[in-house]
Fold:
Amino acid sequence: MEFDLIDAIRARVNIARDDVVLGVGDDAALTRLAPGRQLVACADTLVAGVHFPLDTAPEDLGWKSLAVNLSDLAAMGAAAAWALLALTLPRADVRFVESFADGFAALARVHEVALVGGDTTQGSLSITVTALGMVPAGEALTRGGARVGDGVFVTGTLGDAGGALHQLQNHATPASTLLARLNRPEPRLAEGMALRGIANACIDVSDGLLADLGHVCAASSVGAELDAEALPLSPALTAAFDPATCRELALTGGDDYELCFTAPVSRETEIAAKLEPAGCRATRIGRIVAGAGMRVLDAHGNEIEMTRAGWEHFSR
Amino acid sequence: MEFDLIDAIRARVNIARDDVVLGVGDDAALTRLAPGRQLVACADTLVAGVHFPLDTAPEDLGWKSLAVNLSDLAAMGAAAAWALLALTLPRADVRFVESFADGFAALARVHEVALVGGDTTQGSLSITVTALGMVPAGEALTRGGARVGDGVFVTGTLGDAGGALHQLQNHATPASTLLARLNRPEPRLAEGMALRGIANACIDVSDGLLADLGHVCAASSVGAELDAEALPLSPALTAAFDPATCRELALTGGDDYELCFTAPVSRETEIAAKLEPAGCRATRIGRIVAGAGMRVLDAHGNEIEMTRAGWEHFSR
Structure:
């Protein structure tokens, strides 16, 4: 089945880049790194029934399978460049593949990502994308650089994708803006690049803010305090859920694909200016403290007990 | 389940490389390309029940999932450098993962490949490895350079893995040398690098000689003639099968992971000398001709009709 499907994908995902010496069609792809750049590489898998509902539209899957990987590049402050797609399908369903490729291509075009290779195989539906990008040597953002006294910031709004998933699971119809956050996440590549030289640490929020900020704290050997009142919530989320649920979704909902970063509070104005061209706000939601672990504080500075430690995949 | 498994894998696949700036544990890996090098990238998936029998030992799976990808780098004349592993498992089976990682690490050590990232997810057993390597700019071997008059060469022997699979499917016990060719293929990286500047075209034999040489012919707009009597067969294969079956296995059996390349016949002595340090012979098995398609000739120069066009996965 392999060849027809690859042709269907190639025909639709045809973003050209000057730095691709050889794309799909040989044993491997050949590409050129720009001078002074380091390679940034990641690979994430989406499994049907685990990472997305079985009835997710193939266009959305194509978009999302690339988005979750570009989000990892964004968290490093990298520019996206190339991708490899390993698509496993129960049968050679050309219409599925064409729709999938259309969704993949729609996001690939936004960030000028060339599809340079991959594999199509037969089996249970799952998608592994490898995203490759570049960052100026020494300028990558990592999880390990958070410093005591840093502010904790997050781009955009939190909890929207988790809210949509919550509603789907309860057979409610999510608002279209919430559903779009779940199915068509926007990787924050421009924001990540803008934060180079400013953010001390950065991660993308894929498993939930507490879980992901927890990785930053562990890698940086610090703790964090979050102000529950400061969590940025969309109007669509606050219209759909009570305040306590909104807070829980913002803290533990997965699939937000916003960037959570730490930076000196003194640079807050500069951060806003740098992010403005990307059309994205960052909100300061807390601070890095000595010690370990995370505390969430209410408006009076009292700790709120959390019942969930992070996002649970909807079916396990 | 993700974190325990990743730790189990990291502990076992701990090949260090100076060019890894940041390995497993952040949002993405950071690596450095050597000066004057181009990046070579490929990703292949192995699905349980399609690409390997369900009772394949996890050590062999770990080896093979890396080997099939390193073989693609070999076919480009590249040096292997880094890998990402996306492992999907029905359940968090630490013993399986440890054995898998041991097999992966055994091959990674041979070729000094650092595991720099990936993902572990829950689902039907399948493995996608992304292999990343480097080649001096402009020196990669490709499928498209075969010229009329070139000799067609192949490294090692053909049909051994196909023979082992054939026996397993018929509930026979393959000789250990044949079984090793199926479960522990040796990617021909040193050979591919030695062929830079000599071979005009190159591919690895994964789907069967006729199928893969067919890709070279199509990409190069040429045809090929193969001499059936020249096909290199191992003593273990000729001991296990009659001559006609040996020939069919050599022409259409998959999973050989030898290199098939074309080069001027005048350079045959040089080829032998270049490959000798790798401990590997190349055999001239035919020639590139004008036109399209492939013909297999007997000792009298008469065409042999083939009934199969390539390797069929053992279960579809």
Q: What stands out?
A: Chain B touches chain A through 61 residues (CB under 8 Å). Confidence is low (pLDDT under 50) at residues 309-316 of chain B. DSSP finds ten helices and 13 strands in chain B.
